[in-house]
Amino acid sequence: MRPSNSVVPTSTTDERPVGVQIRAATAHDLAEVGRIAVDAYRADGQLDESGYEAALRDAAGRARDAELLVAVIDERVVGAVALCPPGSRYAEICRADELEFRMLSVDPAAQGRGVGRLLVTACLERARELGCRAVVICTRAEHGDTAKRLYQRLGFTRLPDRDWAPVPGISLWAWQRLLDSTPPEAAARN
């Protein structure tokens, strides 16, 4: 079961952006998903000589080997995330009872409006649907302070025993959110 094509309403009790839809990516979305990923990682200083830009741009590959979700405002893709089950091509640190998400990116023009939080929340909901015990993610150790704060607000904790380096000079920190009865949006308000 994939996330519904629902629009997130505005509310006076939370900070959700108005009119954001989270849905499965379509073939029509893929070029824009690749562009957004590259632009978002570049804006955060995370593109270097590691060759990661080509992987970020390859949204078609992600769509073949992972479940790709997009955030849409007014029919325009503004963010995306890849859900990677254990053993899949893009899974790096997840175990049998976990779902991993990767390459979460929000168009720099749409950042700061809660789109990333909604994408993470969709990942948590999807993991619950699949019966997973936890959700995991990696961040660059030396970059991504905004993302790290977001993950902490959503209940993720560090997993130093799963930190790793995909190539020399790049250190990744592992994070985990155990799934319980606390809805993701309630955790974000804490």
TrEMBL record:
PROSITE patterns according to UniProt: GNAT (PS51186)
Keyword Ribonucleoprotein: yes
One MF term in the entry's GO annotations: acyltransferase activity, transferring groups other than amino-acyl groups
GO cellular component: ribosome
Protein name: Ribosomal protein S18 acetylase RimI-like enzyme
Domain N-acetyltransferase, chain residue ranges per copy: 20-179
Superkingdom, natural source: Bacteria
Keywords in alphabetical order: Acyltransferase, Ribonucleoprotein, Ribosomal protein, Transferase
Keyword Cell wall biogenesis/degradation: no
Pfam families: Acetyltransf_1 (PF00583)
InterPro entries in UniProt: Acyl_CoA_acyltransferase, Bact_Acetyltransf, GNAT_dom
